[in-house]
Amino acid sequence: MTFLITCCMLLFLNTMTETTGISLTEENIKTAAITFLNVMFLSLVCTVIDAVRRKFMVDRPVKRIVDAAEQIAKGDYSARIPRLSTLNRTDGLDEIIECYNKMAEELSGIETLQTDFIANVSHELKTPLSVIQNYGTLLQQPDLSEEDRLKYAKAVSDASHRLAELITNILKLNKLENQQIYPDRKQYDLNEQLCECLLHFEDIWEEKNIEIDTELEENVKINADPELLSLVWNNLFSNAFKFTERGGKVSLSLKLENDIVMVKVSDTGCGIPPKVGKRIFEKFYQGDTSHATQGNGLGLALVKRVIDIMGGDITVTSEVGIGSTFIVKLRRTDNG
User: Histidine kinase domain: from which residue to which, for each copy (predicted)?
Assistant: First the structure.
């Protein structure tokens, strides 16, 4: 490169002297040569400085980003990259690093959720399977009385139904979360649907002597998916009757406020502590473990997802020892 530049300079000087007729003395050439060498030296110094700068400010940070990305690719979601600038300023690489760390944190959270989900599913599957296995073994006893046989057979039947319900709910929730279920909206009478769903639990409220209080506005038409919303009402009613003790009370109200339909399902059960209320719509979360054998912790997660798909809102207010109230708000018409 130096030889090429020198040749170019000599050619330039020779052409200039021939064109202008100016003769270059030895002193002129000596001065030009010194100047040229100084320029070359300064260029070399700048090149070295730039190479060092790139080494420390570009190559090394990029290598750190690449190394961390390789860790993520191998499944290590704990990889994080410290900021380059210690001052209160952000350059392009710092912005990339910040975005990378956010991505790694999200992936780490997803991995934790997946691990918890697998652990919870395994536990929920194991419980009814153990019941079926144990009572199935007892049913094989030759001297078993008819009363015990019916008792054990009922336990096997209940456990199998719970297992089937768990698998069904997991599949439904998976489809809802992956948007594989699309609402089939139609206009129908919400009052009539609520009454039909509530009547499905008539045997339970009569057996537990639970008082039913309803306050339903008539002719409340709503444009929604009746099948998906029936899943919501059945889950809310099921929880209300499950947690309400004998002689308690379950209330249902339907009100129309402007274009918003508000459904309230209240009970006089054990109530929900504030800490539990914050997580009540999470998958497999069960605040009251004393009733864990009657559910799988997926009902309210399904309810929340359906309400989100319908563009509505669900909240819960509760007081320990007094009871709980779930409030669902939906638009009468679909604006989407």
Answer: 120-334
